[in-house]
Amino acid sequence: MAHELTLALATPIEDLVPKMIAFNNTELLAAVEEMLSAYDGVVYDDEHISDAKQDRSTLNTFSKALNDERIRIGKLYNSPYEKFKAQVDEVIDRVKAASAKIDEQVKAYEDKKRAEKQDEIIEYFKSVIGEFSGCIPYERVHQSKWLNASTTMKSVKAEIDAIITNAKSALVAISALGSQDEELIKAFYFRTLDLSAALNENNRLKKEREAAAELKARQEATKPAAVEVEAEKPAQAPKLQTVKFAVTGTVEQLKGLQHYLRENKLDYKPIREE
Questions:
Q1: Are 138 and 162 within 8 A, CB to CB?
Q2: Other C-beta atoms within 10 Å of 186: how many?
Q3: Contact at 8 Å (CB) between 81 and 22?
Q4: What is the pLDDT of residues 135-174, one digit of tens each?
Q5: CB–CB of 153/120 below 8 Å?
Q6: Cα–Cα distance, 242 to 268 (Å, whole number)
Q7: I need a surface site. Which of 96, 171, 214, 265 has the fewest CB within 10 A?
Q8: By three-state DSSP, how is residue 178 classified?
Q9: What angle do CA 108, 110, 114 make, to 5 degrees?
Q10: C-alpha 257 chain-centroid distance
């Protein structure tokens, strides 16, 4: 249902274009220039400030009167167009109101079709995701363009199939690395679905592990050297001291003391009284 809407003027616009407003511009400008020449270079001292105020008031009053007349003429001059504009705007507003009601129905229909299409896409995704169902959720691969009316289901299915094919190839490539961090790399891939990024992550982890191993090796290498240096230190002989004392005891006790001194290699000698 459509109607051809045409704005038709009762009188051709060429006949309605107003003529330029003619007025005594040249004479008025010449008169103003002559009047203003009287103020060129005028300097008002303290005694003539009242004259300055009067002159300012005269010029402002003239300027305001001229501008007020311009505004009055402008309103009269533009009134036909302003009325025409208001009448056209009234028609346009009514058309827009009707269009807005139709737009609501169109958007409701489009939202319904988008929802139906998304349900169809999700069902297809579930039917083909297979072994990756726990690793690749639909939300991670969804693209808003899939719901556009201009995007066919055939192209959407092709993109989903490509995602699954790429995932299988990526797992083969990651396994071929023989990396100690294989499980971590696979998990990283499923978070990003970017094989290049996953390979970079593998290199990063490998470098970190090598750096840690190198640090540990350096630390281990310093331990034997420290022990060796410590072993090479010459043992310091204990400082000997001499203690003079007299012992009183039985013959058996004295013999036992003598035996103890000999067994412990203590140097002793009797003290002779002088």
A1: no
A2: 17
A3: no
A4: 999 999 999 999 999 999 999 999 999 999 999 999 999 9
A5: yes
A6: 9
A7: 265
A8: coil
A9: 115
A10: 91
Rounded Cα distance between 74 and 21, Å, is 10
- Quote the tokens at residue 88: 């056209």
Helix/strand/coil for 22: coil
What is the chain's length?
Answer: 274
Two structure tokens written together for 24: 């005594």
Residue with tokens 């995602």: 163
The Cα 65–Cα 152 span in angstroms is 70
How many C-beta atoms lie closer than 10 Å to residue 83's C-beta? 10
Helix axes 49-129, 153-176, angle to 10 degrees: 70
- CB atoms closer than 10 angstroms to residue 198: 23
Q: Convert the pLDDT of each residue in 34-87 to its tens digit.
A: 888 888 888 888 888 998 999 899 889 999 999 999 899 889 888 888 998 999
Greatest C-alpha distance within the chain: 162
For residues 146 and 121, is the Cβ–Cβ distance under 8 A? yes
Q: Are 12 and 68 in contact (CB under 8 A)?
A: no
